[in-house]
Design goal:
2 copies of one chain form a homodimer. The relative contact order of chain A is 0.20. Chain A has a 6-stranded mixed sheet. The longest helix of chain A is centred in the N-terminal third of the chain and has 24 residues. With 131 residues, chain A is an alpha+beta fold. The first copy, chain A, has a single domain, classed as Nuclear Transport Factor 2, Chain: A (Roll). The interface between A and B is medium-sized, with 26 and 26 residues.
């Protein structure tokens, strides 16, 4: 069980690094390479609100995110919690949304299967204006 | 370290039971008894948006929540993740907000100190209409 938890944490941390890189730069390939083909994600609001299924949908979504935040988002990681299958990252982010100052608090929950992320849930902790 | 993690999980689970009871019934005393005097919490939106400090502020907040959801909220717990100090509960809730159907996805992150909760961060995973 401890070994499973260690693998889960290692895989999720690697994916989170690529996620952070994607948000900062708009380069998502490394993150997308870590998603299973049947990857699904839940997003809290907007055009991608609700359950989104499949890796292609994820590719579209992350491209869309990087169009919204052209200058990239900078993350400050506050907490990491985990169990055998799932790792939650709590962080604050900052950047510009269509040119306007943007700040938020986020929790993302990555579910790990083998050496990949098979699903993810995102949660908003603030309003896009303060964190 | 394993012992610390076990205590953290036990305390957080007990607090979450009382939290769930408070949301269902409007009776918050058991939950409030588990908060440190210097308890603080972050809430994502509305009147209590941002950082709220002190146990009295928490008492006000939870009474306000139970006025908004008079019939109570029913929770479905999906995931629990933890480390030495912090436990994250991901759940879906359902009820009526000022008489209108309400559904959401929530992540709450409880920080444990000794046998009490010293702070908490709440995150919204949906829009209040679907989960």
């Amino acid at each position: 069980m401890a070994q499973e938890s260690n693998n889960t944490l290692t895989v999720a941390h690697q994916a989170f690094e690529h996620f952070q890189h994607g948000l900062a730069t708009g380069e998502w390939n490394q993150f997308l390479d870590m998603l299973t083909e049947d990857f699904s994600f839940w997003f809290p609001a907007g055009k991608y609100h609700g359950l989104n299924q499949g890796k292609e949908r994820a590719r579209e979504f992350f491209q869309y995110v990087s169009e919204c935040f052209k200058g990239g988002l900078t993350l400050t990681l506050d907490q990491v919690t985990s169990n055998e299958t799932t790792v939650v990252f709590e962080f604050r982010d900052e950047g510009a949304l269509f040119g306007e100052p943007y700040k938020n608090r986020i929790a993302v929950s990555f579910d790990v299967r083998g050496n990949k992320i098979c699903s993810y849930r995102e949660y908003f902790g603030s309003d896009g204006k303060s964190n």
